[in-house]
Write a structure and sequence with these properties.
The chain is globular, with a radius of gyration of 21 Å. It has 269 residues and is α/β, with parallel strands linked by helices. It is built from six helices and 13 strands. The chain has a nine-stranded mixed β-sheet, with helices on both faces. It has a two-stranded antiparallel ribbon with strand order 2-5. Helix 3 packs across helix 4. A hairpin with a 5-residue loop joins strand 9 and strand 10.
């Protein structure tokens, strides 16, 4: 049986988590202050999906990995200088906004069009990977909408592990309530998998992989199609940072049960 797959990983870029973000209202609506000046990284959730895709590709010879990214291509180029050394992939770039002030519906539509346009794409061997959540587009719905647009009904969210069987079937571990996992069996592609943190370490930088990737990344960035995501009809009343609240008391000789009850009471207020 031919167990070679076509894995499409969807991932955008986000500001480096160590940066302080300040929301502002610009001419086109809400944005981040000096967003284009902030150092960026590949979305951490999407990073796990990319590493898992590379791991599966090593298990199934002939598998090809595509990274579909919707982001400003100038910032995307900077990020891919590092990400390109982690795993081999072919880039499909869309030149559009990277911030969190976009609609999942429009994002999913743009990604679906880009995936359908991949030359030689075989829907019968297609696996769509992405982040279960996102550090910028955290609606938790983009992947689901994308799967529906591609006609893929087998969808798994909160995936921590995928095991490939000899017959081409997948055993998938999905997160559920109570810190437990639901074990699912998928006969094979097509399928959509929204990855949680997984259990693989971050791959080491490999300059040879980076050089091979960059030979294809630069032409892909030059051919990036505009994807403005206008979000017509969407209005943000206000955008502010979460308020910090701190109330400290020093109390001695109280039992853990009393302390816990007081904390719960404070949270409910």
């Amino acid at each position: 049986m031919n167990n070679a797959y076509q894995i499409v990983v969807c991932g955008g870029i986000v500001p480096d988590p160590l940066q302080t973000l300040e929301p502002v209202t610009g001419p086109a609506g809400p944005a981040l202050k000096n967003e284009m000046m902030l150092p960026a990284v590949l979305d951490p959730w999407a990073s796990h999906a990319l590493y898992e895709a590379a791991h599966l590709a090593r298990q199934a010879p002939g598998t090809k990995v595509f990274l579909v990214s919707l982001a400003p291509k100038a910032k995307l180029q900077q990020v891919l200088m590092t990400v390109g050394q982690k795993a081999p992939f072919e880039l499909v770039a869309l030149d559009g906004p990277a911030g969190g002030f976009t609609e999942p519906f429009e994002t999913a539509a743009a990604l679906a069009d880009a995936i359908r346009a991949i030359p030689g794409l075989d829907p019968a061997r297609l696996l769509v990977f992405g982040g279960w959540e996102s550090a910028c587009r955290g609606a938790g719905a983009t992947l689901q909408m994308l799967g529906e647009r591609l006609g893929i009904v087998d969808q798994f969210q909160g995936v921590d592990e995928l095991q490939l069987g000899a017959d081409g079937a997948f055993t998938i571990l999905e997160r559920i309530d109570g810190g437990k996992h639901q074990v699912s069996l998928c006969a094979g592609p097509p399928a959509v998998l929204g990855w949680a943190t997984g259990n693989l370490p971050e791959p080491k930088n490999n300059p040879q992989v980076g050089m091979a990737n960059m030979r294809a990344i630069m032409p892909a960035l030059q051919k990036a199609k505009p994807a403005p995501l206008p979000a017509e009809g969407v209005v943000f009343a206000s955008v502010t940072l979460p308020k910090q609240q701190r109330a400290t008391r020093i109390v001695k000789d109280q039992s853990p049960e009393t302390i816990a009850a007081e904390i719960v009471s404070w949270i409910r207020q």
